[in-house]
Amino acid sequence: MKLWMAVLGAFLVLNGLMEVVDLSFKYDHLVNGALSLAAGVLVFTQK
Hints:
The protein is mainly alpha-helical and 47 residues long. It contains 2 helices and no strands.
């Protein structure tokens, strides 16, 4: 499996849990932003 797919999957699962289960934790916006940024950069650099 490619790294960008794993990071994107983690981002999507985290977003889904935050909406469906009302999951929230300290610095959740920071973790969410970092995962989305990392996934985007990996997608563009590994294509």
